[in-house]
Amino acid sequence: xxxxxxxxxxxxxxxxxxxxxxxxxxxxxxxxxxxxxxxxxxxxxxxxxxxxxxxxxxxxxxxxxxxxxxxxxxxxxxxxxxxxxxxxxxxxxxxxxxxxxxxxxxxxxxxxxxxxxxxxxxxxxxxxxxxxxxxxxxxxxxxxxxxxxxxxxxxxxxxxxxxxxxxxxxxxxxxxxxxxxxxxxxxxxxxxx
Length: 193
What we know:
Blueprint: H1 9-31, H2 38-45, H3 49-52, H4 59-84, H5 88-103, H6 106-112, H7 121-144, H8 150-169, H9 174-189
Helix pairs in contact: 1-2, 1-4, 1-6, 4-5, 4-7, 5-7, 5-8, 5-9, 7-8, 8-9
């Protein structure tokens, strides 16, 4: 009988699943979608591949679970940062600072690895839904600024953030990128002189 390393069987399973998801996220960040295999996460967590099958029946199921695990945590960090800010301008700044901070985090890099992956259409659709949830706090903050076209302004700002995120992922210093983006955003959202 396998050793239970928690007070209850349910907690044991919960801990193992969490460890498998963390390993899947790490593999995704370091090696891309193709690195997320049941054997790979098993090896990373010290479990046999057959044990991993108790939690996930395939690599795509594991990958989907990693995405569903990481996205909501990132979204909550963004939402919390925006909610703590006082003014719409402060909310935009909080979103930018938090988003770029996440770009330097390994879990976000795992999500970034999905961008170029070949995924089934239903997976791509779900990722779009999860992104929309992440963008909602920024949309609300930009709307609060009173700009003439909040939807377009948000879209443009997201494009800037995407480029800035790529720069951070490629090794640019997060603090420098953040300063540059904030200066760019403040100039752009201030409107024409």
